[in-house]
């Protein structure tokens, strides 16, 4: 890059509207841009989930208020089987690629990394700006798929070939092509982002910010960036092959031309499993920081936490086959994938116990952000434990491709990632916008979300154990599922309430943006460097780059009378005592 | 709880179910234990004026314990799963009841060997969406697909296996209880996926013989019963 970061940051003149809010190279603004766009996508992804749920509870009935949607999507307000497939495909695609990833990595990564390591900006600010605009382009391409003839992709977010490789099999033509192209473009964006994050974290840490003085969020984002850098190109290559099968007459995945359907699955899950960690590691980092701050305690076993994240990242590359136990892969391979999958459970268990250890002996404050972090731990626990059923190959025979999996996915991705996202937004909102979010509204939103979340997703385990397949248009069609239909009703009622509850969050967010209480510089009395910067931080972040004397979690240290000890506070010779 | 899993009608089903319940009890115990512990901490260590949090960075002994204990549990589960898996998937018992099942958008096509008892010859008998098997004999199913990937699911027999175009995949089960059961497709295969449904009819040996004779699906003297 020609533009060296320090020189750029020293230019303190206020940029105009366009440079400030649109084509900004300021990492904080780019983070907020990612957040704004992703929250918009959350509404679309959530709306699609409501359609899916409606159909499952009351198959074929008219959905109130949906009469305006034209055919072939909806027929006078009812969902067609083809559109049903599109709905859950795009629900999952949007949630994964346009909500969870961009918020965790795009928003928190951008906003937090320079601030928390004491840098003025990212290493490559212009590349950073481009990464947002390329991601936005990708989002537009994805949404465009909804209006092309033939409808949007409907092969599931996993797009298993040959279903996805031959237009005739789904009847979808440009929708699936756009789906592939959009995700290839998104891959380019995250490549730019991850190169930037890795370079920034390696090179631009403030004096004294050693590796083991970095907050766990930064560790998690660093490891995530490495995973992204290595995993997404695999997907990009696979998508390129899929597009060629669709448009250029090749047959990588089509048996009629000599291709191998399972090749797609291997490539997809070789990306897909690390992807799961891309969506959970930053959430773990966020939860760790929140738990320490609001327990007023150092994180329990900081190094074990960092090493277990590294362990998860390494092991994550050798377990992809656990998604393919019933795919026709060799049963002997199934056994080795089972063993490696069981092994990867260990670092996750370590993390849960360390979070508990952090609460032990604390002085716990139940702020909205903390409640979300606690929900993260308990829901991630349930999601992790249900994963053991799938890891056991014989049990997976039964529950593979059932609602048990859907329950598992959501305990990890909603109960885990999304709760951490809500917690993170509430926690860093004051630093982002200079105002506090409303705590009362925040708590109402939290409790309702927590209740309806469990009401929605816990019974899905029961459906799965009963054998309810996922991705089916009409559960009433099967004799053996008839007794389960009341469970489907219960789930859908909870899901609709869960969806409605999110408007409280949206209201709180926009209300607080303009009318929220003005925030102090460090409202939570936290130790990490972002709270040393002004609120909200100016372009360039710090008046002077802080020097770091200790780790990020020195809460309730006996060295000082307050219960917090910022990383940059110089205690003279005494500083040496704490690490 | 036990009525939640659909009724099992296969010989290896109880092994799968036992493993399921074992994991269910272990994870249930771990889950409730951790959640109770967490609740206790939340109440006991809630913020009160004048009390300061304990300043501690961790405890190595504890960390070693809670690394090793889950690791041992996982290793144990891995070994127990391995033997059941090997029984179901790695050793296919010899049998003269062999049926080819081919998935296609959106039906199951069953192909019985016919009177010569050999699959793939001119006298094979084809039927859509109906699989007939006897109790008390292993049945071998040779799975393939004409177009996209489907997944052959016998919920009551604890059997699920993808049918992949371009491959023949062999699986087996042995039914124990006569009756009629659903054969859904468990892998998304297009807009008709949710209507793709066949039926498994399990006969006792005598009625299987009668059926096989009537349909000329199996050589009645040889493999019929
Ligand atoms: C209001 C909240 C949500 C509801 C009611 C909901 C509902 C659903 C339902 C019913 C399905 C299954 C469709 C089917 O297979 O038949 C599904 C699938 C899925 N959802 Fe959600 N969801 C919600 C939020 C989320 C979030 C926050 C994520 C985050 C990434 C997410 C990710 C997924 C994924 C990955 C699938 C898998 C789709 C597949 O492979 O079949 N969902 N969701
Ligand atoms: Cu995986
Ligand atoms: Cu299907």
Sequence-ordered SSE layout with sheet pairings:
The complex is a heterodimer of chains A (579) and B (225).
Chain A: H1 5-10, H2 17-22, H3 27-57, E1 74-75, E2 78-79, H4 81-117, H5 125-144, H6 167-170, H7 174-203, H8 216-247, H9 261-278, H10 281-295, H11 302-315, H12 331-359, H13 368-391, H14 393-399, H15 403-433, H16 439-465, H17 485-515
Antiparallel strand pairs in A: 1-2
Helix pairs in contact in A: 3-4, 3-5, 3-17, 4-7, 4-8, 4-15, 5-7, 7-8, 8-9, 8-10, 8-11, 10-13, 10-15, 11-12, 12-13, 13-15, 13-16, 15-16, 16-17
Chain B: H1 13-44, H2 60-90, E1 98-104, E2 107-112, E3 125-128, E4 130-134, E5 138-145, E6 150-154, E7 159-163, E8 169-174, E9 179-184, E10 197-203, H3 205-215
Parallel strand pairs in B: 1-5, 4-10
Antiparallel strand pairs in B: 1-2, 2-3, 5-8, 6-7, 9-10
Structural class by helix and strand composition of chain B: alpha+beta
Could you tell me the mean pLDDT of chain A? 93
- Derived from helix and strand composition plus strand pairing, the structural class of chain A reads mainly alpha
User: Which shape of chain A, going by the Cα principal axes?
Assistant: globular
């Amino acid at each position: 890059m020609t533009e060296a970061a320090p020189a750029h940051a020293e230019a303190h003149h206020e940029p105009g509207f366009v440079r400030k809010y649109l084509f900004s190279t300021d990492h904080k603004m780019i983070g907020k841009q990612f957040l704004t766009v992703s929250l918009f996508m959350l509404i679309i992804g959530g709306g699609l989930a409501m359609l899916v749920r409606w159909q499952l509870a009351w198959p074929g009935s008219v959905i109130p208020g949906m009469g305006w949607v034209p055919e072939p999507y909806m027929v006078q307000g009812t969902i067609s089987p083809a559109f049903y497939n599109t709905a859950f495909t795009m629900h999952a695609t949007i949630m994964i690629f346009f909500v969870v990833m961009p918020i965790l990595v795009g928003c928190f990564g951008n906003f937090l990394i320079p601030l928390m390591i004491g840098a003025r900006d990212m290493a490559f600010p212009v590349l950073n700006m481009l990464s947002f605009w390329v991601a936005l382009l990708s989002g537009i391409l994805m949404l465009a798929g909804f209006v092309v003839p033939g409808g949007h992709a409907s092969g599931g977010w996993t797009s298993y070939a040959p279903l996805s490789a031959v237009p005739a099999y789904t009847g979808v033509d440009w929708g699936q092509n756009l789906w592939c192209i959009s995700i290839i473009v998104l891959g380019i964006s995250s490549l730019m982002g991850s190169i930037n994050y890795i370079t920034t974290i390696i090179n631009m840490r403030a004096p004294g910010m050693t590796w083991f003085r970095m907050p766990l969020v930064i560790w998690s984002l660093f490891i995530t960036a490495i995973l992204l850098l290595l995993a997404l190109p695999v997907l990009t290559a696979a998508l390129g092959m899929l597009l060629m099968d669709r448009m250029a007459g090749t047959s990588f995945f089509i048996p009629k031309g000599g291709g191998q359907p399972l090749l797609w699955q291997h490539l997809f899950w070789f990306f897909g499993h690390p992807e799961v960690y891309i969506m959970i590691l930053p959430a773990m980092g966020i939860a760790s920081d929140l738990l320490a701050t609001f327990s007023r305690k150092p994180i329990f076993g900081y190094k074990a936490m960092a090493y277990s994240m590294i362990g998860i990242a390494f092991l994550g590359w050798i377990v992809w086959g656990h998604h393919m136990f019933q795919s026709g892969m060799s049963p002997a391979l199934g056994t080795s994938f089972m063993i490696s999958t069981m092994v990867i459970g260990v670092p996750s268990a370590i993390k849960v116990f360390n979070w508990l250890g952090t609460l032990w002996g604390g002085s716990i404050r139940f702020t909205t952000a903390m409640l979300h972090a606690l929900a993260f731990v308990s829901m991630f626990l349930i999601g992790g434990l249900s994963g053991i059923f799938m890891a056991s190959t014989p049990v997976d025979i039964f529950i593979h491709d059932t609602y048990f999996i859907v329950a598992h996915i959501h305990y990890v991705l909603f109960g885990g990632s999304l709760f951490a996202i809500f917690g993170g937004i509430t926690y860093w909102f004051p630093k982002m916008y200079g105002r506090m979010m409303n705590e009362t509204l925040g708590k109402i939103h939290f409790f309702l979300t927590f209740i309806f979340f469990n009401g929605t997703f816990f019974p899905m385990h029961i459906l799965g154990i009963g054998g309810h397949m996922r991705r089916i248009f009409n559960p009433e069609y099967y004799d053996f599922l008839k007794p389960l239909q009341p469970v489907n009703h219960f789930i859908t009622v909870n899901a609709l309430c869960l969806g409605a509850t999110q408007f409280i969050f949206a209201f709180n967010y926009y209300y607080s943006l303009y009318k929220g209480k003005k925030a102090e510089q460090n409202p939570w009395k936290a130790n990490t460097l972002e709270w040393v910067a002004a609120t909200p931080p100016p372009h360039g972040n710090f008046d002077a780059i802080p020097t770091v004397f200790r780790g990020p979690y020195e809460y309730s240290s006996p060295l000082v009378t307050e219960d917090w000890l910022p990383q940059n506070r110089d205690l003279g010779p005494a500083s040496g005592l704490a690490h | 709880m036990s009525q939640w899993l659909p009724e099992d009608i296969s010989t290896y089903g109880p092994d799968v179910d036992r493993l399921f319940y074992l994991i269910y009890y272990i994870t249930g115990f771990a889950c409730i234990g951790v959640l109770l512990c967490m609740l206790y901490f939340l109440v006991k260590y809630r913020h009160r004026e004048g009390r300061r949090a304990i300043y501690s960075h961790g405890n190595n002994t504890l960390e070693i314990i809670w690394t090793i204990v889950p690791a041992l549990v996982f290793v144990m589960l891995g070994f127990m799963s391995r033997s059941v898996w090997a029984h179901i998937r790695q050793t296919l018992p010899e049998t003269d009841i062999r049926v080819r099942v081919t998935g296609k958008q959106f039906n199951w096509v069953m192909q019985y060997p016919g009177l010569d008892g050999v699959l793939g010859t001119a006298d094979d008998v084809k039927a859509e969406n109906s699989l007939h098997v006897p109790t008390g004999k292993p049945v071998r199913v040779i799975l393939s697909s004409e177009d996209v990937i489907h997944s052959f699911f016998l919920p009551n027999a604890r059997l699920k296996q993808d049918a992949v175009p371009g491959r023949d995949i062999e699986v087996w089960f042995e039914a124990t209880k006569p009756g009629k059961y659903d054969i859904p497709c468990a892998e998304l295969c297009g807009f008709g996926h949710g209507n793709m449904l066949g039926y498994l009819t399990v006969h006792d040996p005598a009625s299987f013989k009668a059926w096989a004779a009537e349909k000329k699906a199996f050589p009645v003297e040889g493999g019929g019963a």
